[in-house]
Amino acid sequence: MTRHTPPPPSTGCRNAPVLKQRGQHEVFCGLTGIIWLHRKMQDAFFLVVGSRTCAHLLQSAAGVMIFAEPRFGTAILEETDLAGLADAQNELEREVDRLLSRRSDIRQLFLVGSCPSEVIKLDLARAAERLTMKYAPRVRVLNYSGSGIETTFTEGEDACLASMVPTLPETDKRQLMLVGALPDVVEDQALDLLAQMGIEDVTVLPARHADTEVTVGPNTVFALTQPFLGGTHAALERRGARHLPAPFPFGEEGTTAWLQTVAREFGVDQARFGAVTDAPRARARKAVAKATETLNGKSVFFFPDSQMEIPLARFLTRECGMEAIEVGTPFLHRAVVGPELDLLAEGPQLSEGQDVDLQLERCRAAQPDLTVCGLGLANPLEAEGLTTKWAIELVFTPVHFYEQAGDLAGLFSRPVRRREALKLGATA
C-alpha cells in the first residue's frame, strides 16, 4: 500500500492555544547526552563532576565498555567536598591532571556540572579557564551543565554545543553549518546529498575530531538537525550566524522540506534538486508505507520528554496516517519548531511543561493506541493496558533523512503490532 503525504493544512498549529503546566514532572537526567556525544566526538572526554549516583547512571545508560576505554568518567564529590571541608577546586584540578597524564588521546575535555556540583556552587567555568591556560594548545577545556534538576535529557547536548560556540574561530566566508550530533553514517548521507546539489562549503557542529576547523561568522547560515538545540541556536545568532528555519529531516516530507530550504538559500535549481532527491524520496515513501499499514487510523499521545515530540507528531500524522491526541513537549521554541507547527493540522492539544498527574489523567481518559513517554511511565502504563514507546530510543536510534525514514516509522509500528499479536494470542 502506498500512501502519499497530504497537502499542507490550510491552518496549522503555529497559533493554536498551548496548555502550559508547571507541576511535578518526570524527566531523565541531562547527563545522558554524554552517551551519544562521546561517541560522536572521538577525541573528547566528558568528566562529570558529581556523586556516585551520577556515575551509576552513566554506567547503566552506557552499558559495559569491554573493548575500549570509555571517553567519559565521574570525578566523585565525597562527603568532605559537599560539607565544605575540602577545597573541591583543588581536588578537581588534581583529578584532571591525573586524567590527562594518563590519556594522551584527549584533545577536548568537558567539565560537566551535575546536581551536587551545582548545589555546592562549584565554579566549573573558572576551573575550565585555568585548565585551558595550563594545557593549551594540546587540550581545550570547556564546561557545561548536565544537571537534571530542571532539564530534560536532550538538553545535555544543547548545553554542550552551546558551550563550544564562543570558542569557534571567526570567519567571513559564505558557508553552511549543520548543527546537531548525528550518527556518522547519517551525517555522511546528509553531506553527500548536499554535495550532489553543489553545496560543498559545509561545516558540522560538533565535529568528529578537535582538529577539524569549525568556524562561524556573519556569512554563516546554519540548519539545525535536532529540535532541542534552542540554546545553541541563540549562541550562534549571537556570533552573527543566520538560522534557516525548516521542518526537521524526519521522514520523506521533513527531509525534503529541510533540503529544499538549504537548496533555496544556495540557489540550487529545481531540476538539479529533483535529480538528487527523487530516488531516495521514493525509497523513503516505500519504506514508510510498510509501517503505515499498522499505524494508519491509530491514535498517539506524546508525553514531554525529548523536545522531538512536535516534529514526530507531524511525521506520524502526515506520513503514517495517525491521529495525535496530545503533543506534549518540555519547551515549545517557536523559532525552532515553527515550520513544524505550520504543517501539523489543528486538532491535537499542544502542551508545554508538565504536571505529570494531570497529564496521566488525560492520557487514561483518551486511551490512545500508542503513548510515547519516558522510561519511568512506560511500565506502569503498559501494566494498565496501554501500548507505549520509549522516547529515549528515538534519540539513540538513527532516524534522520531518507534512508532512515522506514526505521523511524518502524519504531512506532512495532509496539502496536506486538500489542495486536498479544491480543490475538489471548483470544486464540
UniProtKB/TrEMBL annotation:
<comment type="function">
    <text>Component of the dark-operative protochlorophyllide reductase (DPOR) that uses Mg-ATP and reduced ferredoxin to reduce ring D of protochlorophyllide (Pchlide) to form chlorophyllide a (Chlide). This reaction is light-independent. The NB-protein (BchN-BchB) is the catalytic component of the complex.</text>
</comment>
<dbReference type="GO" id="GO:0019685">
    <property type="term" value="P:photosynthesis, dark reaction"/>
</dbReference>
<feature type="binding site">
    <location>
        <position position="54"/>
    </location>
    <ligand>
        <name>[4Fe-4S] cluster</name>
    </ligand>
</feature>
<feature type="binding site">
    <location>
        <position position="115"/>
    </location>
    <ligand>
        <name>[4Fe-4S] cluster</name>
    </ligand>
</feature>
<dbReference type="GO" id="GO:0051539">
    <property type="term" value="F:4 iron, 4 sulfur cluster binding"/>
</dbReference>
<dbReference type="InterPro" id="IPR000510">
    <property type="entry name" value="Nase/OxRdtase_comp1"/>
</dbReference>
<comment type="pathway">
    <text>Porphyrin-containing compound metabolism; bacteriochlorophyll biosynthesis (light-independent).</text>
</comment>
<comment type="similarity">
    <text>Belongs to the BchN/ChlN family.</text>
</comment>
<dbReference type="InterPro" id="IPR050293">
    <property type="entry name" value="LIPOR_BchN/ChlN"/>
</dbReference>
<keyword id="KW-0602">Photosynthesis</keyword>
<feature type="binding site">
    <location>
        <position position="29"/>
    </location>
    <ligand>
        <name>[4Fe-4S] cluster</name>
    </ligand>
</feature>
<keyword id="KW-0408">Iron</keyword>
<dbReference type="GO" id="GO:0046872">
    <property type="term" value="F:metal ion binding"/>
</dbReference>
<comment type="subunit">
    <text>Protochlorophyllide reductase is composed of three subunits; BchL, BchN and BchB. Forms a heterotetramer of two BchB and two BchN subunits.</text>
</comment>
<keyword id="KW-0547">Nucleotide-binding</keyword>
<dbReference type="GO" id="GO:0016730">
    <property type="term" value="F:oxidoreductase activity, acting on iron-sulfur proteins as donors"/>
</dbReference>
<dbReference type="GO" id="GO:0005524">
    <property type="term" value="F:ATP binding"/>
</dbReference>
<keyword id="KW-0479">Metal-binding</keyword>
<keyword id="KW-0411">Iron-sulfur</keyword>
<keyword id="KW-0560">Oxidoreductase</keyword>
<dbReference type="InterPro" id="IPR005970">
    <property type="entry name" value="Protochl_reductN"/>
</dbReference>
<keyword id="KW-0175">Coiled coil</keyword>
<feature type="domain" description="Nitrogenase/oxidoreductase component 1">
    <location>
        <begin position="29"/>
        <end position="384"/>
    </location>
</feature>
<keyword id="KW-0004">4Fe-4S</keyword>
<protein>
    <recommendedName>
        <fullName>Light-independent protochlorophyllide reductase subunit N</fullName>
        <ecNumber>1.3.7.7</ecNumber>
    </recommendedName>
</protein>
<dbReference type="GO" id="GO:0036070">
    <property type="term" value="P:light-independent bacteriochlorophyll biosynthetic process"/>
</dbReference>
<keyword id="KW-0077">Bacteriochlorophyll biosynthesis</keyword>
<feature type="coiled-coil region">
    <location>
        <begin position="82"/>
        <end position="109"/>
    </location>
</feature>
<dbReference type="Pfam" id="PF00148">
    <property type="entry name" value="Oxidored_nitro"/>
</dbReference>
<keyword id="KW-0067">ATP-binding</keyword>
<dbReference type="GO" id="GO:0016636">
    <property type="term" value="F:oxidoreductase activity, acting on the CH-CH group of donors, iron-sulfur protein as acceptor"/>
</dbReference>
<keyword id="KW-0149">Chlorophyll biosynthesis</keyword>
